């Protein structure tokens, strides 16, 4: 089974969705199915960042961008996840969808921003349960 047969695309924002779809496009010949995933992070007892309904609406918009960008070239599914740990939720989605890999585009940010954000990209690589591929950006 090819590495990029069934891939999970973690998407954090509208900009991320657009950039990730464009970065994936040159590699679609190897991809059978794309599962676009957005994780709505829960505060775990604390105050959430925004009302749940607003974040669900944002998730739909983010996922629709990838679906519209890629659906003519590859099968696209969307999945909204909820969790207190984004990385755990992404790997749960990968397992649930029998993904062969997780593909992502690294987002810019200095080390301080990465430290505050928990450095999700680093955790994706160091805690991987399936192969993780960083897509090149222009």
The SS-based structural class is alpha/beta
Q: Looking at this structure, what is the CATH superfamily? A: HUPs
What oligomeric assembly is this protein in? Answer: single chain
**What spatial order of strands do you see in the largest sheet?**
3-2-1-4-5
CATH secondary-structure class? Alpha Beta
CATH topology: Rossmann fold
**Rg to the nearest angstrom?**
14 Å
Q: What is the overall shape?
A: globular
Architecture per CATH nomenclature, i.e. the level-2 architecture? 3-Layer(aba) Sandwich
Q: How many separate domains make up the residues?
A: 1
What fraction strand?
15-25%
Helical amount: 25-40%
Q: What is the overall number of helices? A: 5
Provide the residue-averaged pLDDT.
87
Described by strand count, sense and barrel closure, the largest sheet is: 5 strands, parallel
Distance between the termini: 29 Å
Low-confidence stretches: 112-117
Tell me the total number of β-strands.
5
| Element string (H = helix, E = strand) | EHEHEHEHHE
What can you tell me about this protein's structure?
With 138 residues, the protein is of the alpha/beta class. The protein contains 5 helices and 5 strands, in the order βαβαβαβααβ. Strands 3-2-1-4-5 form a 5-stranded parallel sheet, sandwiched between helices. Residues 112-117 have low confidence and may be disordered.
Please write out the topology.
Layout: E1 6-10, H1 14-24, E2 33-41, H2 52-70, E3 75-83, H3 86-96, E4 101-104, H4 111-117, H5 120-126, E5 132-134
Parallel strand pairs: 1-2, 1-4, 2-3, 4-5
Helix pairs in contact: 1-2
